[in-house]
Amino acid sequence: METDNSPDIKILIACHKKFDVPSDPIYFPVHVGAEGKAPIGFTPDNTGDNISTKNCMYSEMTGLYWAWKNL
After folding, report:
1. β-bridge mates for residue 43, sequence order
2. β-bridge partners, 27
3. Which of 49, 20, 51, 21 is nearest to 34 (CA)?
4. pLDDT at 44
5. b/e code 2-30 from CB counts within 10 Å (16+ = b)
6. What is the pLDDT of residues 2-55, one digit of tens each?
7. Among 11, 18, 30, 56, which has the highest number of CB atoms less than 10 A from its own CB?
8. C-beta neighbour count of 69 within 10 angstroms
9. Which residues contact 49 (CB under 8 A, 6 or more apart)?
């Protein structure tokens, strides 16, 4: 039986601007508060089931909500 040795783990990085992400694929940058903002090249939190429009009240939690509902 062949197994996939890659862990099913992601370390989310809440981002609001572009930066150099570590090359290890375990790191998963999420553009938090992406609703109404220009794309920065990371997965936005305004796709799928999301609360991106509430970023002014919940800050980085919008990224955690996005991950909970969409990953």
Report:
1. 30
2. 11
3. 51
4. 98
5. eeeeeeeeeebbbbbeeeeeeeeeeebbb
6. 556 666 899 999 999 999 999 999 999 999 999 999 999 999 999 999 999 999
7. 30
8. 11
9. 66, 69, 70
Written as six digits, the tokens of 32 are 């938090």
Smallest CA-to-CA distance from 70 within 42, 44, 40, 35 is with 44
Residue with tokens 């999301």: 50
Assigned token pair, 17: 């601007």
pLDDT over 80 at 57, yes or no? yes
- What's the pLDDT at 60? 94
Q: Which two tokens stand for residue 4?
A: 């996939």
Task: Report CA-CA distances (Å) from 45 to 1, 4, 13, 33, 70.
Answer: 37, 28, 12, 7, 10
